[in-house]
Amino acid sequence: MAVALIVAAGSGERLGADKPKAFVEVGGKPLLLWSLHVLAGVAAIERIAVALPPGQEVLPDCGPVDCQLVAVPGGRTRSESVSLALAAVGPGDPVLIHDAARPLVSAQLIEAVLAAVAEEGVDAAIAASSVTDTIKLARPDGTVVKTLDRASLWAVQTPQVFDRAALERALDVGPDVLAQATDDAWLVERAGGTVTVVPAPPENLKVTTPLDLRVAEGLLAGRGRA
Ligand code: C5P
User: Fold this and answer.
1) Phi and psi (nearest 5°) for 196?
2) Beta-ladder partners of 13
3) CATH no., domain 2-221
4) Euclidean distance between CA atoms 54 and 60, whole angstroms
5) Residue 79 and which of 148, 175, 183, 191 are 20 to 30 A apart at CA?
6) What is the value of pTM for the model shown?
7) Ligand 1 atom closest to Cα of 101?
């Protein structure tokens, strides 16, 4: 059976709210609970560990869920929060990691990413969307160095699913390396592991700014009516 980690320990400074991002209300419930409820409803997931902001490790009331839940204090960086949640989640393989900041994740996307690891013999499968903007590499002073080939670029998201041994090996690095990781798949790549992308729908957006929050609110309201 699979286990899942939800990282929700970020402060969410860019949102400008008076509380950590995971606890900000969107569509009538804390941001964190949208993805928690979707993950808890996926039959293959047996247990979920949630990394919460240190000092605020009480999960919001999530009602009855069909899954075991454990809350742990998160770390100073995202990858530290992942390591702490992994240590607390108990046995289970593969390991799915999801950012609480992506409330619009769907059960179909979770199942597609789980299936990719099971069927393709890779160390990790990651949700990602193909890039629609043209992407340029520029120097700090703004001078463009080159234009990248959009056809082979992917904007990486969560959920990400890992073979447990590969993830544990990848996380067994110093705090300086962990601090550089903006996603866990990068740690697996640098350890020599194989990673594949799974196309994700455009609505699996990450809530970072107040504008993102308004867009998520509108999309979640639509989901409630569907
Ligand atoms: O900061 P960023 O937007 O990349 O954070 C992505 C996810 O990682 C968020 O869900 C956030 O709560 C989580 N995070 C964490 N522990 C940290 C920093 C971020 O769990 N120290």
Assistant:
1) -125, 150
2) none
3) 3.90.550.10
4) 15
5) 148
6) 0.96
7) 10
